[in-house]
Amino acid sequence: MIVSLHFLQSRSQLGYQFKQIKHLEQALTHRSLGRINNERLEYLGDAILGFVIASELYRRFPLATEGELSRMRSHLVKGKTLAEIARDLNLGDYLRLGTGELKSGGHRRDSILAGAFEAILGAVYVDSEIESTTLLIVNLFRKKLDTLTPESAQKDPKTTLQEYLQARQLSLPVYTTVAVDGAEHKQNFKVSCRIDELAITENGLGINRRHAEQQAADEVLKKILSLNNKGYL
Asked: Does the annotation count 39 as an active-site position?
């Protein structure tokens, strides 16, 4: 394990040399393995990532509106994007998982990879300081930042639905958690999205509440489009 970690943290692989390897070990330890895991580092890394990306976008796009900046940031820090970068770093090869997650292929799951990536950012900050963490984030996101434009960052379903309703002076949607199933380390959420004034309610499923809400909003948008095409709205 130590050999693998030293390879991962080499400047050609990760872009940062840890002073204390224990920080990297914890960042790669999923909660399914025990009480000492990467959840706290993931929380820290998530906050730092959001700030650094927001700051970099503010600097790069001086004419972008607040809405455009928010959409670009959401596009960059969403789980799918983080999982892509984690795969580029081959993080799945170094994850420390419990037996259940190992058997179910947790090292390939987007949510686990994204969480580990955020945890590594938190670990870098704990191991060094904000300057080194900022430099690492900007370097890891450089290709995506260089090709990003306000037009290329599409609106997520929740934002699209909210803007559709506001443009028609309708009440905002109500999201309700219907059910949470599965083991603590592998939960599935079911969330409903309700538009009372349109008498529409649709459900969404996801690995967390946010993902389920986005899917529910997408289902509502599809329903609205269908009703519009039929002339009911």
From this structure: no
Please state the pTM of the whole predicted model: 0.69
Cβ atoms of 58 and 69 closer than 8 Å: yes
The span from the CA of 211 to the CA of 214, in Å, is 5
84 is catalytic: no
Quote the CA–CA distance of 147 and 155 in Å, as a whole number: 17
How far apart (Å, rounded) are the C-alpha atoms in residues 82 and 182? 24
Query: pLDDT, tens digit, for every residue of 173-187?
Result: 999 999 998 776 667
Question: Domain range holding 46?
Answer: 2-147
Catalytic residue among 46, 110, 127, 218: 46
Residues 87, 107, single domain; the answer is yes
Judgement on whether residues 169 and 143 belong to the same structural domain of the protein: no
